[in-house]
Amino acid sequence: MVGDKVKNRDKFPPVSDGKSQYDLYSGKYLKVWQGPQHPGITGNMSLELVTSGDQVVEARTHVGYLHRGFEKLMERRKYIQCFPLVCRICVPEPDFNEHLFAECTEELAGITVPERAQWLRALTLEMARLTSFLMWIGGQAGSFGMGTLGQWTVTMRDYMLDLFEELSGGRIYHMYIIPGGVRSDIPEGYFSRVEETLQKVEHVLDDIELALFHNAVFKKRAKGLGIIDPSLVDLYGITGPNARASGISRDVRKDSSYLIYDQLDFQPVTDVGGDAYARTWVRFQEMYQSIDLIRQMMHRMPESGPFFTKLPNVLHWKIPAGQTYKRAECTRGEYGFFMVSDGSEYPRRVAVRGPSYTHAVTLMERLAVGANIADVAGLMVSLHTYPPEIER
Amino acid sequence: MRTQLQQVSTRFSITLIDELAPERDDLLFVQVEKDQAVPFLTWLQELAGYTHLVFFTAVDFIEEGYFQLTYMVHDYSTHQDLAVLLKLDREDPVVESIHHLWPHAATYQQEMYEMYGIEFPGSPRLHDDFVLEGWDDLPPMRRDFDTRQYSEDTYFPRGGRKSRDTAEYMKEQLYPGEAETW
Amino acid sequence: MKKDEMNEQIAQIDKAMRLGNEGLSDDQKAYFCDQRPERIDPYHGILERFANWARAESLWILGFGTGCGAIELRPLMTSRYDMYRYGIQPRPTPRQAGVFVIGGYASVKTMKRIVRSYEQMQGPKFVLGLGSCTINGGMYWDSYNTINRLDHYIPVDIYIAGCMPRPEALLAGFNRLKEMIKAGQCDGMNSYAENFDWYKKNQKQIIKHWNMPDYNW
Fold it and tell me: Taking the model in full, what pTM does it have?
């Protein structure tokens, strides 16, 4: 698919039937594979690029290197057995899977969660967002040749993971949000340690602003790269920061508020550029927003209370028949779980809607056209795609 | 929204399903006939404000002999979800493609062809490999495909793994006396 | 070169990819080696000990994140755990790498790329299986698309258990690997050469779409 506003139109092959008609034998075009074994690719997927000079004229994405068949596996596990499985769908922020799976199950089973558990869930979700953003900004800087920022932020992410470890016992997969509530209460003095880490992170973020956003190389390469027109947003199902960077204010936390987000004070961050620079800027501001939200939650959280509600015997837990869809705002956009129960002990179907599904495949194929080969990696990271949630 | 849907219910021969829906006012379920699905979705996208296709997926109800296709669409002005359900005969799974309405639907359709064997005539790259490579068995997400059996036959399971029914195991080993009271 | 000539050559090469070197001219044979891997005997005495010491102190890993375990390589590369101080560093291409870290589960599609990358690595080469998925399938033991035992497809020198293993566990695994190399116990490449037919049979059983030479380097 060739974009509408590409320069040097004659460089591109003629389009007929929605397909570029290029002749690889003419010597004008060259096919380049990027991935799966390629350091510029986020996760594990591959891009098939047809180039003319160093400009991409056609791109195709190939996914499936990480397909584990989660949706099939969940069909033959009981609800409580699915709980340790779901978090493994998305590695950098597994908490959203746990939260959505728990919410779907609770809604179908008619369980209400105690208030403190909701605050604790929101706290972990927001911390997971910050953690994932920290990982991403390292990749974004690294894809434009600034590896140093990755060294800083991945270390900061590690300090955040220490907090998760203290809370749940797990570094990467926390398995903290369980249907019915959360698995444990916060340890003593936890908030002071969170605050300490947040201050460290804030300090590094201030440095990053100087090093990244005031950097001439980054500005020159990221500005104008992969512009998402606002008219594309609905057509391609673009959500999250990618849509917000095109000036469309969409935030699930604000629009269809879940947990306790309606009691918090925040505004969605938007920008108008629609290019890689604007997307980076929006996400960067959202990191400050996450820090602010974590602080708000720590101050407003009820002091004590139950954090778990009594469940029926989970080994014989039959969920009434029904279907439901729940969504949440993860770092990449709208994350959703669609659960179908047929009244038995096993879920009939759990479908996962990952935001990368639309961003990394259809949208990427469109935006890569016209970019330089060297910028494709930066473009991909600026869409913040994550392959495991595409293929599950 | 409910009234708006009731007004067009004869035009698109749709029926509202209330028994499936959870007790929430922002999610509605609608059943649609096979030949009316694409006109109805076009109406939803262009006139009713449901501009965002959240996902498009299938559920296999093998006992009743049909696939339930789910088009989930979302309205950003009212923040309402609408699940359009379509019953598709399992023996003849062919349905119209919606990639002309939302380009990213082509990816969902490619996946559904591979995972369920549902045909969407005209959808781009439908028959290309999506996540599987050289798959020659039943489409894996169909209920009659046994993933455990396939794995044991193909992937050299390492001995020593015991799998038991957790409920039975707890009843017998951990709480032998109390099992009756559950 | 004319188009149909080129087509013809490409068709020949395609054929060669499937059938080894059969029917190719001598100068083209070099591109598609169908020679089986051969056993390479160690040097004698102190020479081998010196070589092993050098190998152990410069473990260059292939930067191919094959599964979710690759996420713990990121902290390992950065300042907190800093694997560079052990002489371990990532390399972008198989030609320069000596250690292959299989990061967790391997789906069939990835397994094909793993086999190719492993064969392209220059010997002596070592494989480190990360996470319980490589040992017995782990969480995904009954999945239709992930392998259960990595050692049926490529020789594995050391496994690190866990889901997922912490960076400390990885460092411990690397250090154990170093000890084993120094003691001359890591002989995966030779066992691959000796049991080549068995490995190929297992690989072809799962990789249905086999469009590559049997052995490439």
Answer: 0.86
